[in-house]
Amino acid sequence: MAMNANLQEDSTSGNNGYTAEAITVLEGLEPVRMRPGMYIGSTGPSGLHHLVWEVVDNSIDEAMAGHCDKIKVTLLSDGGCQVVDNGRGIPVDKHPQYEDKSAAEIVLTVLHAGGKFGGSGYKVSGGLHGVGVSVVNALSTRLILEIDRDGNTHRMEFRDGGTPIAPLAVAGKSKGRKHGTTVTFWPDPTIFEETEFRAQTIMERLQTMAFLNKSLEITFEDKRPGKEQSVTYKYDGGIVDYARHLNHSKESLFKKVGYFSQAEEEQEVEISFQWNTGFYESIHSYANGIATIDGGMHEEGFRKAITNVVNKYARGKNLLKEKDENLQGEDIREGLTAIIAVRLQNPQFEGQTKGKLGNVSIRSLVERTTNEKLAEWLEENPREAGQIVQKAIIAARARVAARQARDLTRRKSALEGAGLPGKLVDCSSRDPRESEIFIVEGNSAGGSAKDARDPRTQAILPIRGKILNVERARVDRMLKNSEIQALISAIGAGLADDFDLSKIRYHKIIILADADVDGSHIRTLLLTFFFRQMKPLVEGGFVYVAQPPLYSTLMGKEKVYLKDDAAKANFLAEHPNHKAEFQRLKGLGEMDFDELRDTTMDVSKRSLLQISVDQAALADDVCSVLMGEDVESRRHFIQTNAKDVRFLDI
């Protein structure tokens, strides 16, 4: 009773100080600086590069609207980034809702202001996917806006998170271009964990944008000391060139790249495709230039139609007999590389990452178009059509054999009882959220890891040598491999189309291998397996690579571990008088268990690299290059990326 009385008294006497004065009103760009992760995802490398995408996407929207054919992105020597286009230029006249401010200033200082929100500025755009260039302004120490319109160059500068230095003003007559927008910005080091842009990340994104926008010229230039380079992307074949590019490291089933398109008043679709001799499908879809990594209605329409069209063709040409079952979609799509690019007025994106397209009308357009245009292509190309059907028939036989192998594996597991591999040293916890499994190469390393682990939450699975390269093996052969069987059983969520993320037994799958050539090969084999056969595991962020340090040294009586040569150099810069020797750490199997625990397995001290797939098409290509048959492509990739210690973060 006393408690109730107190509560009643509080509710009528000041509300514990919770009055109108306690409500904080964030104005302008303040919310972005206070909670940057809400607007750009993170303050790490992905968030830093998101600033570039926001500015570039505005230029891409101008290109999709038919007003821009050149974009240039420059990394400046002082750490800034400049994006130049020859589009119409942001309007410079006064905005009707803000009589004292230009439309350009509104775009740079008001969240969700732009030409894509129901106005007549753009028929289609990708801009609604992002949060606007105002967020770039909010998270920069300095931003300079230059607009060329009507023969004049208009300039405005902002400082310290979007504060205008002066109103937009004419800086002189236009030089070099009649119209366009230039945005130059310097990321705020107090917001971001690091402010150094990664050239490769930017180039990969720009190349994809060039593929998706036929004949658009995109130039990238790096002016940073020691990193100078310049490259231009322009593809007159558009997504046909894109499909050919993705298949460059694979053996094509035939040389032709198929293409068809269809447009309606408010939406359009174009599709390119080519089969290779591999065993995995690579379907990549985009809506208004935005990668829909989780698919959506446009992919659904394509998958349904291609299964229907190829079966109908095979029956009509008597390539499938009456007694034969229809080919399944997965049989037909084996080895298929396809690009599905749609444009529509009001894209409806679903999911946390907005990676899935939900417009029902686009499914109908894609399905209708594929049914009609793909059927025509097969009739016009009978040799290639026959190769597609024959490959699908072989894939169907392998699917049946794989099902039998799966059933055999399940029966074998049931007979053994728990269904877990005998060499798995499991943890006692049954809560996947706190459990983690270390995949360790070699029995000796496995023994050390067993002694170094926390037995409550850490499991150890030793594997012998290098697992089968799944990039070059069909699933039926793969399932006969004992190491792969052990991986599937330990993780416990199935395989390929049967994979069920909700059934995984550990929320951290950690690859633990030596920091040498063999260790790199083992990591790549395992990552290829996870990406090809347990893709949701990678997409969900459950796969990690342990990063055992290369060096140790003593500071007084305390042992200090250093990750790599760069960390060693930084340490020496910070401790120029350090006299103790540096010990090069031995392989995992030669480490004492306490050393392995302190460097690699102790949650409070270790360093893990989380594997992510931001660009599925790029990850697909990397797997094919590293693990496929094309030796020359692999050599070129390794030579290009050898010095980039972060290339594994695909």
Integer-rounded radius of gyration: 28 Å
In the CATH hierarchy, the third-tier topology of the largest domain is known as: Heat Shock Protein 90
Supply the CATH superfamily name of the largest domain.
Histidine kinase-like ATPase, C-terminal domain
Put simply, the count of helices is 21
Defining key terms:
650 residues; alpha+beta; Heat Shock Protein 90; Ribosomal Protein S5, domain 2; Rossmann fold; 3 domains; nine-stranded mixed sheet; 21 helices; 26 strands
Outline the secondary-structure elements.
Elements: H1 2-11, H2 30-34, H3 36-40, H4 45-64, E1 70-75, E2 81-85, E3 94-95, E4 98-102, H5 103-109, H6 133-138, E5 140-149, E6 152-159, E7 163-164, E8 169-173, E9 180-187, H7 199-212, E10 217-222, E11 229-233, H8 239-246, E12 258-263, E13 267-275, E14 282-287, E15 290-291, H9 297-316, H10 329-333, E16 336-344, E17 349-350, E18 356-357, H11 360-380, H12 382-416, E19 436-441, H13 443-452, E20 458-463, H14 475-478, H15 482-491, E21 508-512, H16 517-533, H17 535-539, E22 543-546, E23 551-555, E24 558-562, H18 565-574, E25 583-584, H19 593-601, E26 608-610, H20 616-627, H21 631-641
Parallel strand pairs: 1-10, 14-16, 19-20, 19-21, 21-22
Antiparallel strand pairs: 1-2, 2-9, 3-4, 5-6, 5-9, 6-7, 6-8, 10-11, 12-13, 13-16, 14-15, 17-18, 22-26, 23-24, 23-25
